[in-house]
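Ligand-bound model needed. potassium ion.
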Amino acid sequence: MSFFFDKDTITAEDVSQLDANSASLGIPNGYLMECAGLQATNKIYEHYKLNSSSSVVIMCGIGNNGGDGLCIARHLATRGISVFVILLGDSIHIRTQESRLNWELVNTLTLKIRSYSIKNIKQLKTLCKSEFFMNADIIIDALLGTGVTGKIREPISTAIDMINQSNLPKISIDVPSGMNPDTGQITEKSVNCDFCITFHAKKKGFANIKTWVAPIGIPLEASLFIGDGDLRSAIKKRDKDFHKGQYGKLLVIGGSSSYSGAPSLAAMSALELGIDLCICFVPKGIGNVVRSFSPNLIVQEGVAENFSNSDFLQAKKLSNWADAVLIGPGLGKDPKTVEFFEKYILWILGKKIPCVVDADGIKMLGKLFKESKIARLTSSIVITPHMEELKSIVRFKNLPKFDEIEKRTKKLISILEKIGGVILVKGVYDYVIKISKKRSICRVNRSGCPEMAVGGTGDVLAGLTSAFLSIGNSPFNSACAAVYLNGLLGESAKKSYGPRIHATDMIKNLKSFLLFKKF
Ligand SMILES: NC(=O)C1=CN([C@@H]2O[C@H](COP(=O)(O)OP(=O)(O)OC[C@H]3O[C@@H](n4cnc5c(N)ncnc54)[C@H](O)[C@@H]3O)[C@@H](O)[C@H]2O)[C@@H](O)CC1
Ligand SMILES: Nc1ncnc2c1ncn2[C@@H]1O[C@H](COP(=O)(O)OP(=O)(O)O)[C@@H](O)[C@H]1O
Ligand SMILES: [K+]
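Prediction:
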């Protein structure tokens, strides 16, 4: 299944994404910690040929890396090994439920485990001179993992020194504490481990570390199906010192004499997601209709009641201002608009400004492909066709059913390789595909409900995709996060208002939904 989204090395961000996606699939975080603890225990037990006369020191932090260490302590003790647990910090500060549970369990098992929580460095130094510490067979480093940030603080800093000063064999859990797992950088100090037992996949920054990778039950589905983790990481946090415009400037080009709702729905979705600024560039005569949706929208009108080449200069100017562009919703099919679109799209393909093409824009793209005016889309373009729209761009007959994932993915990739770009194929399951010469990848979205098959929900999706682009996400990640959120909004609108939902109900629910889900 190499076309699915599995990676050889992963970052801390990937880890938290996979973790949250596993939770979306119903796998509690504590299960993963239990697997991690048991896998590490098995490896250590076999590698060092431990037996009931062995003794082990485990240094634990107050995050989940420490939780893994506490879990290992329990499993080693179960095998009759004497364990000496040192928690670096007060137990009331343990950060997660899973780690706290493991701390409580460690303190319930009294036969083979002794545990200490360190209040100050002096206490730590005394413990490190104790007979147990000096005579142990190995020392396990579960101080810091993928959650490390900034300079190493006390008492962890001294604990790292203590581990490094000891002559015992040293095993690091997940990450050698102190090392940045994404870059391999050691700002100050890190544990000089003999080897590292790392979970799920090797971390990106590991170069010269002896590593053993342990699977911990993160299922393939957590990488294949888009979930909470994707959405959480796409909703980027505003930096404290951000000023207006740094969290997304979006340009929506759409609308025509017949359609004013489509660009309005897209722009409103983007605004409700929380981006800073959205300019709607619409043809003359519909500006006030779009304005009436919200005073927060900035609306500019073109020269005539349908776009034409006379609007090209203004479209270019506004695009250069924007972080991302959405073109297509409600554009119509006026021949002059088709000319304008062609000119604009050829320009933007050359500029690499992140851009979403939807609705009428997709049909016009199809024409450009047919006339060989475009050979290939660039990786900065996302198109969001449903099946019929996709047929206007590339020829194909039938596809395997929506839930025959492996077959459908293979077929879609072979079809889409001809056109390139990032393609979000809408349907009961949405398929987000990034075509690349090296290796094309596919993610699948299962959120959403049949009640969403009404006018306007596609415009909301296009608005969300371009909004995610405007705050700095990659085209692929933007499409994934948007289609997942769009489906959740459909489900949530159905819960709030019953089966007769409109696109406006989805937008209405956006802010409270994100707040409720703590995004
Ligand atoms: N996400 C997953 O899928 C799983 C993660 N697991 C473990 O969880 C770890 C990540 O857990 P967390 O996110 O809680 O992070 P960590 O356990 O790496 O550490 C986070 C805590 O350490 C402290 N800290 C961070 N930087 C520090 C510094 N520079 N100096 C001193 N203290 C510092 C802070 O109190 C912070 O809350 C992984 O490395 C792995 O060991 C496992 O339990 C298995 C499942
Ligand atoms: N039957 C369905 N089940 C689940 N989701 C659906 C269904 N029909 C449409 N959707 C979702 O609604 C959104 C809009 O899709 P669609 O109606 O095809 O767009 P458009 O408005 O462009 O025609 C997409 O995210 C799609 O996944
Ligand atoms: K560690």
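DSSP finds 19 helices and 18 strands in the chain.
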